[in-house]
Amino acid sequence: MTRTTSPFLLGLSLVILSLAVSQAQALEGDASAPIQIEADRLDLDDRAGTAVYQGNVNIQQGSMRLTGSRVEIRRNDAGELSQAIATGDRAYIEQQPAPDESVVRGWGRRIVYHVAERRMELIDQAELHRGGDTFDGGYLEYFLDRRVVQARSSAEGVEGNQRVRMTLEPEQQDSQ
């Protein structure tokens, strides 16, 4: 019996792989680490270029982790990953940018990771932890390459405002 693999499934593996590889300074082992996906359900649509995982979704590759009640992976017309969207009461994403840096962690009711732009949006009850620094608000946008955070008290389509709050840890100076 000949076993064929859907081109989308092969592309999906590459898509998820690129979640970890896309960061220029991501841990070297992330790219070669196996991709592990757990969910209660998968709906795959080759023609639409989507894969939707539902039910306590956990995607892990190396130091990268993405969780939510629902995670949708979208690809563009060229078959490349364009977005990964996680939703839930506390959707979660984490990545360790480099061995000497702490893990960056983000939460929100909706997380949108834009692969080509290397940008993540944390929406509704958004929270971002970067080292000792924390950011909270209705909408947080984090640019991975530039390490830029933009925070807003509200997000489009979300009712109410959630004040922007930050805690910034002073840089530690070397003692002589």
Could you explain how this protein is built, in words?
By secondary structure, this protein is mainly β. The protein has one helix and ten strands, in the order αββββββββββ. The protein has one helix spanning 7-21; strands at 36-38, 41-45, 50-61, 64-75, 81-95, 104-114, 119-130, 133-143, 148-152, 165-167. Strands 1, 2, 3, 4, 5, 6, 7, 8, 9 and 10 form a ten-stranded antiparallel sheet that branches. Residues 1-5 and 20-25 have low confidence and may be disordered.
List keywords for this structure.
mainly beta, lipopolysaccharide transport protein A fold, disordered N terminus, 10 strands
CATH architecture: Sandwich
- The CATH homologous superfamily is termed Lipopolysaccharide (LPS) transport protein A like domain
How many strand elements? 10
What is the name of the CATH topology? Answer: lipopolysaccharide transport protein A fold
Query: Tell me, what is the CATH class?
Result: Mainly Beta
As a percent range, the share of helical residues equals under 10%
Rough outline: globular
Mean pLDDT: 81
β content, as a range?
over 45%
Largest sheet properties: 10 strands, antiparallel
The termini sit apart by 70 Å
The ordered string of helix (H) and strand (E) elements is HEEEEEEEEEE
Uncertain regions: pLDDT < 50 for 5+ in a row?
A: 1-5, 20-25
Helical segment tally?
A: 1
